Amino acid sequence: MPTDTRRIQGPETSNSPYDFCPTATSDPALLEKQRLDGRDSAQMRPLFLRAGVISQARGSAYIEMNQTKAICAVYGPREVQRREDFSLKGQLTCQFRFATFASQHRRQHQQGNQEKDLSVQMLEALEPAVCLHKYPKSQINVYVTVLQHDGSVLSAGILCASLALASAGVEMYDLVIASSAAMYNDLTISDPTVQEEQAVLSRVGKGSSGMLTVAFMPSINQVSAITSDGGIQFDTLNKTVRTVIDNCQKLYPVLQQTLVKHIEEKKKGISSK
Predict the structure, then answer these.
(1) Is 175 strand, coil or helix?
(2) Per-residue CA distances from 220 to 44, 123, 174, 176, 212 (Å)
(3) What share of the chain is helix, strand, coil (3-state, %, to 5)?
(4) CB distance 220 to 174 below 8 Å
(5) Which tens digit of pLDDT belongs to each residue from 171-204?
(6) 46-272: CATH homologous superfamily?
(7) For the chain, what is the mean pLDDT?
């Protein structure tokens, strides 16, 4: 048969790229002895943080928790645009977005319901930590974009946004530290991946199972927000909250050291000029 030289000849058969992606385990109880990435149930993923990654923003930060990656930009404080929004207390706005390529299945450019819910949850976690009374007639805008989604995206977004706000010089009562956990009966899984989240949430209604994210301010020992999903027994929930707060305490020095390093680099840049 004659071939069309103006077109690239593709193979006659092909496979979907999703065929090669690992699937979530069907039973979260199997994770008790050996998790998919080799961690034990109480172990968190390695954390990488860097501040000042976006030169055009007032403050910015980047976070990696293994395969969960997010970036945050903070703009403001700047004058409120609309007169009806005038207030002697400043305003904080949060926008949480997934990049179109962040998940296995391509996401839409428009903000979906999940992203809107996560934006509200992130705002509730960050707002108590910001001294908004110091910024009358002003607003501070926080934009978080998830570049790769592998679980615990809300806690990653809160950590990244908290560091970005501090790097922007916004006055805060304390840094907001967030951590997540998945629960299945008596099993608590710290810092779950997306496969573990799907496995646990698929068992909702078949026992005590669900997800929990806690936002905590360690210096003043206050919880700024708690978000849960699923059906969880009170005793299990109470025990998991204490575990997650302990995890937040462990993450606190990492954010402090990252912020100190960013300030030292900023000083060196100013002195060299």
Answers:
(1) coil
(2) 24, 19, 7, 11, 22
(3) 35, 30, 40
(4) yes
(5) 999 999 999 999 888 888 999 999 888 888 877 6
(6) GHMP Kinase, N-terminal domain (3.30.230.70)
(7) 86
